[in-house]
Target: Phosphate import ATP-binding protein PstB
Amino acid sequence: MSQQIQVSGLDAYYGKHKAIEDISMTIDPQSITAFIGPSGCGKSTFLRTLNRMHEVIPGARVEGKVLLDGEDLYAADVEPVSVRRMIGMVFQRPNPFPTMSIYENVAAGLRLNGRYAKSEVDGIVEDSLKGSNLWNEVKDRLNKPGAGLSGGQQQRLCIARAIAVKPEVLLMDEPCSALDPISTLAIEDLMAELKSKFTIIIVTHNMQQAARVSDRTAFFNLAGQGQPGRVIEMDDTSRIFTNPAQKATEDYITGRFG
Ligand SMILES: Nc1ncnc2c1ncn2[C@@H]1O[C@H](COP(=O)(O)OP(=O)(O)OP(=O)(O)O)[C@@H](O)[C@H]1O
Model:
């Protein structure tokens, strides 16, 4: 189990609009990588190219390579659905399936991915809810609607749903931006625990969050007005926040722009 991602020469388009350009990076296994940068510079777009979610948007396409442990995720014989099972995603707004119970929300992905005995599903649901630090809060009401939980609980339910199918990588697109500070800390603690099992990539606008949770940070910026987004600098998080190599990175993290 390695779970390393290597990206080379990646461009992503919406129709004729090139949103990101020439992105190359290596993402270390079982670590947390943060993507930071001003609004519109392509962080979410890039994140979605990593599990082939970008191409579900009509007219959207990707050029370049994404390798997971050496396997080309864009090879002709690779099914996007299998990529999305290996590389799960958690979104900005908690999005439990509104009509499903807590239990069914976690089991939903399993049902798409094969046949399991009821006892097996029970075990995976319990392990996933324990893994997302939600079990103790919901174990007595598993058959109640997921939509009845608080925002922070719903986000941990979505994380349980994502890890139930045992992905290799977890993509998190501003997972705390709709949450209060206590729920945010709960998710950050959870990420620190989950990184022993998964490679985690998080897009965040919260600089303190990037500094607190991530091992490596990539700073994205536009090449210029109307130009595509690029990675300006990627390094150990401690270095990016204390002694970045690029002036644009320093200007951004010190709040001079963005
Ligand atoms: N569905 C879409 N259709 C067309 N263009 C899009 C779409 N989504 C994003 N874009 C464009 O792609 C560029 C990058 O957007 P993206 O959302 O990836 O940036 P971001 O850095 O994640 O921004 P934010 O921090 O505000 O979430 C922008 O110019 C945006 O307008």
The beta strands are 5-14, 17-27, 32-36, 60-68, 71-72, 87-90, 169-173, 199-203, 216-222, 229-236. The two ends are 38 Å apart (CA to CA). DSSP finds ten helices and ten strands in the chain. The longest helix spans residues 118-131.
